[in-house]
Structures are given as structure tokens and as C-alpha cells.
Amino acid sequence: MPADVGNEEQVHQLVEHTVTRFGRLDVAVNSAGTEGTPGSIVNQTVESYAATFEANVLGTFLSMKYELRVMLEQKEGVVINLSSTMGSRGNAQNPMYVASKHAIEGLTKAAALEAGRSNVRVNAVAPGPIDTGMLDRIAGGSDNIAAVAATIPAGRIGTPEEVADASCSSRPRGPGT
User: Fold this and answer.
1) For residues 66 and 112, what is the distance between their CA atoms, to the nearest angstrom?
2) Which of 53, 61, 66, 97 is the catalytic position?
3) Local structure of residue 42 (DSSP, 8 states)
4) Long-range contacts of 10-18 (CB under 8 A, 24+ apart)
5) Domain residue ranges of the chain, discontinuous segments joined by +
6) Rg (CA), the chain
7) Which DSSP letter does residue 54 get?
8) What is the CATH number of domain 8-126?
9) What is the mean pLDDT for each group of 10 consecutive residues in the chain (177 residues)?
10) 171 with 165: CB under 8 angstroms?
11) Known active-site residue 97
12) Following CA atoms 46, 111, 18, 8 in sequence, which dihedral angle do they give, to the nearest 10 degrees?
């Protein structure tokens, strides 16, 4: 079901549709986002800030708001928010993306503290460079990917499947498992 994660009513309808169809919500992965407009902070605009934060932070907030309502009532569930290594280490040429990922990590920590006593886990997965169109844009073109890979301890770019595997391994587990 398509939904604009920056639209509260659409996010609410998406979660309600999921619960109606499946009877519950066990795992939610909040991964929608944008890298924003690359460049120096002195060249950023209010529009770039708003667009990046609407997709990345507002989208994560609204998704968690409705996902957690269901999971807290169920007394179990897992929410996984996609952050980035840039959420902790930064990047000089992508300030809005970096700031938005810092905000996602803060929202994740606050929600984890709130939901933990109800057997609901809230975590963030913070991958490094992943082989996607976003990486091409952040790196300034596919010709620069090898240079990015050289900065990674594994010496290679990650894959979307690896991020999915890390996210899916966070499924709910009952007592004693």
C-alpha cells in the first residue's frame, strides 16, 4: 500500500491496513528517506532542510507513532529505524542528511526507553555505504565508488540484502527464546 511517510493520515492508514490484514504488527522497518542536497552547509537552503527532515525524521516519527500504539497494546513487537554511519561520524558535504540521521538516532533512543518495559524493542541499524542509487549521488557518481570502498574496513560497499538481513534478525522473541 503506497503511503507518503510525511503525511500523518496516510501513515495512520498504512498501519491500520496492516493490522486489519494481518491481525497484528510484529516488525516494522522504517527505511524511507533521502540524502538531501549535497554541498557545504553555507549553501544549504531552508527548503533542502525541510525536504530532508520531512522524509527522514518526520517520516520516522509518524511511522513509530502509529506502529508503537499497536505494539504497546499487543505488549510485543520490534521497530527498526534506518540510520547511517553518518548519524554518528558525520560528512562535511551532506549536512542535512547527517543532521537527520542524528535526529533518527535520538528518536530511536527515546522510543526504546519508552517501549522497553512493554516488551517492545526499538533499534536502529546504521549501515555504512550501501550499493544503491543514493550512494552514487552522495559519492558524486559511480566513478567515485572505489574511493569510498577503500575507506571501509571490509574494503567493499555493502549490499541492500545485508541491511535487510541485519534488520530481519531483530524479529520478536518470546520469553525464554
Assistant:
1) 15
2) 97
3) G
4) 11/59, 11/62, 11/63, 11/65, 11/66, 12/62, 12/66, 14/66, 15/63, 15/66, 15/67, 15/69, 15/70, 16/66
5) 8-126, 127-167
6) 17
7) I
8) 3.40.50.720
9) 94 97 96 88 96 96 98 96 84 89 96 96 81 66 68 70 65 44
10) no
11) yes
12) -30
